[in-house]
């Protein structure tokens, strides 16, 4: 049996302030009052209801009657709330000052954070001297710091992605640049995925710059970029790798006939006159191309060299055409 505690004489208002989780039990074992915080946990008004209808004393074992509870005043109790979600509580009982019942001061113990979240409690629901208030301040501070760190990490990740995108993007046309082209090509070779490669060079572009100025030339390059994007799939890559040079990668493409059809559409689109400030800019496109399936062990340098050779063959053959490389042979095949 626990030690007998001395009765206390505190009014209901004082109890609510000092012990917002208290419950008062009359000699018949019915609840005669409870603190405001405890009241928030209950789904129905507790006054007049038997204490053991609402609470289960789990430790010490064997406390299931008002007399047994009164016999364990001053003993640490472990309770569960039958009403209000089964919250786990800690408490201690002491006689009321008039000798007519018991006063139990309860707390959440280590389950306080779960109770705060579940019942929407704030620091105002706890006594000012309760260490729970300090814990809530610490949790709030930690949450604020954690949220700010998450926001900072998101901003840093967004900035990293933006910087990476910018480093791989041609500023004039918004196409990918040579670095992006090389990374993608090497990645496809590393995983042995078939792909097609095109090297496109504009014909007569210098004449546009010389006669209409560099603003006209930039306008033509942006227009050509849109044509190339229109003739490629979402998973393909179009890159500007030089002044008027473009490279295209076609993952999964292994059919020469399909490669030729794509090249022909690009050449037709590029050949359309481009209006600029009342003038028409006219350029054509020559294309050299190859397929990774032509190589027993594809290597980017070898594929680029063959595509360049095919491009020069297209230029020599009159420009405005596409030529498919034939690796291992001195000749190339005209598309």
Automatic annotation (TrEMBL):
On whether Coiled coil is a keyword of this UniProt record, the answer is yes
Ranges for domain GGDEF come to: 193-327
Reply yes or no: does the keyword Mitochondrion apply. no
Which keywords accompany this UniProt record?
Answer: Coiled coil
Lineage, top-rank taxon, reads: Bacteria
Q: Please name the Pfam families in this protein's record.
A: GGDEF (PF00990)
Q: Which GO terms describe its molecular function?
A: catalytic activity
In this entry, which stretches build a coiled coil?
A: 142-169
Name listed for the protein in its UniProt record: Diguanylate cyclase (GGDEF)-like protein
